[in-house]
Amino acid sequence: MYLALGVITLLVVVIIHELGHAYAMARHGVAIKAMGIGIPIPGMTWRRVVKVNAKIGTAKNVPSRLTYDGGKHELHLPRPLARIVEALGLWISTNCPDGLEITLSPLLIGAYVKPSEEGARACEELPYEAQAEIYGSGVWTNILLFLVMAAGLIFFKSGLTLEDGMIRSVACIGLAVLLYRWKGLFCNYGVPAIGVWVAWSVGSLLFSPADSGVMGPVGIMKTFAQATSVLDVLRLGASISLGVGILNMLPLMPLDGGRTMHAILRGVLPEKTANACEIVSSCAGVALILFLLFM
């Protein structure tokens, strides 16, 4: 039971990360083509292009009609739920002019948000500040999720007085508000600066003779299987959310920190030199990801 709950928690963490990217892309006018969970496998991946058009009724509490896939399908929804779907449909129609392709793969390792060809070109033409916010938004959303989960876990932690629990929970919420308020500064300067420090720390841990405590998907699933309560799963989920955010600050492609660093290098180095650095970074990043998969 707790293993299944752990898998769901891990998926939520990854999805929140990608929704952060989608939010920033929409914010800066970058058209989105596809979103997916898991690594696509030919012949084993479920795909569907979603085009939503929600029509909301005018009378209070009157079910509203929702049509999607070009009017081929129809649902009747309560008014409050239809409002939510209408907002989702508006977001899709605005940011995904050709519809949003959604994929689901049985290889549930990671997720992705893919811009359209026009969106990718538009992203490359954006100033550094906007590119850094797009690349770094997955990081701050994971840290934000960690702070919110930590606030709840601390408040209900046994052994703390009500006053101490409230003070620590409010402190976590305050940090979350500040992070959201200054997310642009965090993405522009925090991600590349912290990423260099993270790279040094991760290198020291990986090559340390002692047990580093670093875990990949295999190690995480083993830990979830050893959970004895829902709170154990939530604590591990909060730690994983923070870990995913920190790991993605590494200045290695295809991680978020690597994309941010490449955007910086493109502005200060000749194009050929910047591209060569990207190739080296990509090789190191892929090697690290493959190494972590089996930890």
Protein topology:
Blueprint: H1 2-27, E1 32-37, E2 46-50, E3 52-54, E4 64-68, E5 73-77, H2 79-95, E6 100-104, E7 111-115, H3 117-125, H4 128-155, H5 162-181, H6 183-206, H7 217-225, H8 230-247, H9 256-268, H10 271-293
Parallel strand pairs: 1-6
Antiparallel strand pairs: 1-7, 2-6, 3-4, 4-5
Helix pairs in contact: 1-4, 1-7, 1-8, 4-5, 4-6, 4-8, 4-9, 6-9, 9-10
Give a description of the structure:
The protein has 295 residues and is α+β, with helices and mostly antiparallel strands. Helices cover 63% and strands 12% of the residues. It is built from ten helices and seven strands. It has helices spanning 2-27, 79-95, 117-125, 128-155, 162-181, 183-206, 217-225, 230-247, 256-268, 271-293, and strands at residues 32-37, 46-50, 52-54, 64-68, 73-77, 100-104, 111-115. Strands 2-6-1-7 form a four-stranded mixed beta sheet. Strands 3-4-5 form a three-stranded antiparallel beta sheet, with helices on one face. Helix 1 crosses helix 7 (217-225), helix 4 (128-155) runs antiparallel to helix 5 (162-181) and helix 9 (256-268) runs antiparallel to helix 10. The longest helix has 28 residues, at 128-155. It is globular.
